[in-house]
Amino acid sequence: MKIAIIGSGISGLVAAYQLHSEHDVTVYEANSYIGGHTNTRTVQHQGHDFHIDTGFIVFNDRTYPNFIKLLDELGVHSQPTSMSFSVRNQKNGLEYNGTSLNGFFAQRRNLFRPQFYRFLREIVRFNREGTELAITDEESDLTVAQFLKEGGYSRFFAEHYLLPMGAAIWSCPPETFANFPMQFIAQFYHHHGLLSLKDRPTWRVIEGGSQEYVKRLTAPFQDRIELNTPVQKVERQADCVRLHFANGQPQEFDEVIFACHSDQALGLLPDADMVERELLHQFPYSRNTAILHTDISVLPRSRRAWANWNYHVREDQTRQATVTYNMNMLQHLDTTKLPDEAVFCVTLNESELIDPDKVLYRAAYSHPIYTTGRLAAQRRHYEVIRRNRTSFCGAYWGNGFHEDGVKSAMAVVEQFQDPDPKSDRGSIPAALSYGSRI
Q: Could you tell me if 236 and 389 are in contact, meaning their C-beta atoms sit under 8 angstroms apart?
């Protein structure tokens, strides 16, 4: 079978990796590199090479089972890291790193502030109530903002803990995160060990940068990847699917797999039907600018507050997420031999605060935004797999991360075991056995 895959992110590459030996697969990528959010840049700094991730960075040993199986199969090595988190508030000057008491009281004056101790108690209460919400059998449509209001949580707690952390994880404005479904957040935090001080998963980074797994994953079908080739339109016929490009002749395929974002897929399908529009419209995206640089002025003023993830609460915090990843800490980059001991950072959406002379690379990434309707749509993923010669996969069918990209790709791959796809996929169970073929 001749199959086109649109997008070379984790979902598209896993689909191609699993299908290429039995089918004629071609991957189309609009960018000049393979990998989507997996974008490792090799920086030459003072005579040394550093391989620095600018998009996908970390995974853990608990909630990424299928991705880890894939890495093991490919022989890709990783090393442990941590997910320490700090907050710096531009309005009131507050800084803290929640990893330890020394970091939490990085500003020693907070030892004498009753408000800060109330803040600690609210964090403990949130961990308890968040766990209760995560493990309950009852489904809730409560948003984060409603949860905070009904729970009587203080504005200080919201602005300095829950909203910055969520905005950093999903790379969206705090105001947008406030409208995320709270039960979804509680379940995610619970599964990732963010609601307890014990039994937390081990976070890991790929040695040599995340592009190491991309190189090995794509090696068997490297000649079937078309870079700098954006698809303009997908035209579906009774006997084929026709892909149109800005330059060159249309190409015909038996089926197409959309491994791009949901909004991009809809933009390529002028004949999208009611089911496709209904489901894909549940997953809007926000666009973020990532800047790789060496300007430490965007990190907390106190080095005791430096963390792997550093959120900056700005005066205009309803804007985009403003977070800086300390890549020296995250990837264990050894810069001690450099004359200036450079600190490599990746900062989202604060280009105006960064010294232009210290900018090394710029990129744009889009991240899914979740609404209270996302769960019902995700449960219907099977309805748009091998239907009308078309399938959809992507991390948006889960929590928006690499493991979800792998799982959604495998949901599509498993249905290609059926040589005679039917238009009515209603008999496929909603809970597919993701990842069974890895």
A: yes
Segment 172-212, tens digit of pLDDT: 999 999 999 999 999 999 999 999 878 789 999 999 999 99
* 363 CB burial (10 A radius; 0-12, 13-18, 19+): middle
Q: pLDDT by residue (tens digit) across 248-288?
A: 899 999 999 999 999 999 999 999 999 999 999 999 999 99
Predicted pLDDT of residue 109: 94
Q: Which contiguous run of DSSP H or E holds residue 363? A: strand 359-368
Contacts for 215 with CB less than 8 Å, ≥ 6 apart = none
Going by their DSSP bridges, the two strands 285-293 and 231-236 should be labelled as unpaired
Beta bridge partners of 85: 309
Separation of alpha carbons 76 and 82, rounded Å: 19
Percent of the chain with pLDDT over 70: 95
* pLDDT single digits (tens) 346-386: 999 999 999 999 999 999 999 999 999 999 999 999 999 99
Reading the block at residue 398, the tokens are 């889960």
Instruction: Give Cβ neighbours of residue 142 (< 8 Å, ≥ 6 apart).
Output: 150, 181, 182, 183
| HEC secondary structure over 190-241 | HHCCCCCCCCCCCEEEECCCCHHHHHHHHHHHHHHEECCCCEEEEEECCCCE
**402, burial (CB in 10 Å: exposed 0-12, middle 13-18, buried 19+):** buried
The residue assigned the tokens 């089972």 is 65
- CA–CA distances in Å: residue 4 to residues 8, 11, 28, 385, 392: 11, 13, 7, 14, 12
In the block, residue with structure tokens 């729970």: 151
Lowest mean pLDDT among 107-116, 143-152, 191-200: 191-200
Q: What is the CA radius of gyration of the chain?
A: 22
Phi, psi of 181 (to 5 degrees): -65, 125
In this structure, the strands spanning 40-45 and 48-53 are antiparallel
pTM above 0.85, yes or no: yes
Whether residue 322 contacts residue 173, with contact meaning beta carbons closer than 8 Å, is answered with no
Q: Are 369 and 176 in contact (CB under 8 A)?
A: yes
